[in-house]
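Field log, afternoon session.

UNIT: design team B
ACTIVITY: writing a sequence onto a fixed backbone
BACKBONE:
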């Protein structure tokens, strides 16, 4: 493992740490659903960007739900096969 060649002084440690503070995200409001979102990004809640629908979130969600239910059914089947 690497070992520091020299001891870091209090001052140099503190100077480095001066840039560690977290900055609050600069949020804007979605033009469609009025929720707080990150600027220059598609709204993750409604899928709108600059006033028009870019992502069909409803379809994505139903697709995901479908996949999940299929997976669960597969698991259930495997369990049943094991118990027999
Ligand atoms: Zn939105």
């Amino acid at each position: 493992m690497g070992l520091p060649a020299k001891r870091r002084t209090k001052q140099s440690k503190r100077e480095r740490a001066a840039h560690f503070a977290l900055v609050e995200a600069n949020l804007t409001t979605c033009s469609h659903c009025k929720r707080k979102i990150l600027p220059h990004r598609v709204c993750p809640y409604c899928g709108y960007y600059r006033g028009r629908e870019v992502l069909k979130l409803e379809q994505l969600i139903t697709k995901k739900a479908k996949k999940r239910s299929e997976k669960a059914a597969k698991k259930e089947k495997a369990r049943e096969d094991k118990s027999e």
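LOG NOTE: The radius of gyration is 25 Å.
NEXT ACTIVITY: expression trials, pending approval
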